[in-house]
Amino acid sequence: MEQEDATSKQVGSTGQASLDERSLARIHAFNPQADPVGRIPDVPVSRLPRHVAIIMDGNGRWAKERGFPRQFGHINGAAAVRGVVEECVKLGIEALTLYSFSLENWKRPADEVDGLMHLCLTYLEGEEEEMMRQGIAFRMIGRREGLPSAVLDAIDRVSERTKANGRATVCMAINYGSRTEITDAAKTIASRVLRGEIKLDEIDEACVSEHLGTHGLPDPDLVVRTAGELRISNFLLWQISYAELYVTAKYWPDFEPGDLHDAVRAFAKRSRRFGAIEEAKHG
Question: Which of 56, 137, 182, 261 is deepest in the core (most CB within 10 A)?
Fold first, then answer.
């Protein structure tokens, strides 16, 4: 019996190694410089998320606790983005979606909204060359209506310039709300049906996904929310149907690559059954 247990463990270990090798080969196919084994060796490569989505929360509270205006928190929050983006690329994570500005954020004071729009413009202008250097593609999801022309011009320029980059994709949710995104997708699909481009019985989950802003990207595996809030806040409601949630009490400006590692470790330990029954464990 002991010999059987040892053999079972050896087979299981060999199978895991083979799975990790295939996963690493998949990552290196689009990001040859990625080093997930070196950076987070305690997580099997096959257990890494392909797409991480982050609700960046707590900028205002971070600033208030330090006696600064809210805009100071937003500035430091923008600075935290670079470190997380870089770490995702180094880990071989394919996509990172960041909840930057929601449709509801227009309700904030005008000076804060103006500051956020200026910060968005500054970020795009400041990170454009870095995205090219690291091979990162940039894209935006959200409604264009209402955004300043300077911001839209920067979004279009950076998106077009980086679209051929293949090491990772950074997706910014700007002027975004998931219910609105799904509603807009439904309207587009209905219009296409009326024009005869799509038949009614051709509308399925894949069809809906193709009409969302994240089309072409894998659905998020892991959703991270900072500042301890336990809600989704109208973020990627369709896409995160089977995502794992990870909440940290840290405010976003304090969120560092090590915190991303902690989120990935927590994700890797979870059993993702997608509605099925967990397989019995042997050994």
Answer: 56
**Domains in the chain: boundaries:** 50-268
175 as an active site residue: the answer is no
pLDDT tens column, 67-97:
999 999 999 999 999 999 999 999 999 999 9
Catalytic option among 105, 184, 254, 262: 105
Considering the candidates 20, 31, 57, 259, report the single residue annotated as catalytic: 57
| pLDDT tens digits for range 180-194 | 999 999 999 999 999
Nearest of 14, 68, 88 to residue 255 by alpha carbon: 88
| 50-268, CATH topology level | Undecaprenyl pyrophosphate synthetase (3.40.1180)
pTM assigned to the model: 0.91
What are the CB-based long-range contacts (under 8 Å, 24+) for 131-135? Answer: 131/158, 131/162, 131/165, 131/170, 132/161, 132/162, 132/165, 134/86, 134/89, 134/165, 134/167, 134/168, 135/31, 135/89, 135/165, 135/166, 135/167, 135/168
What is the identity of the amino acid at 188? T
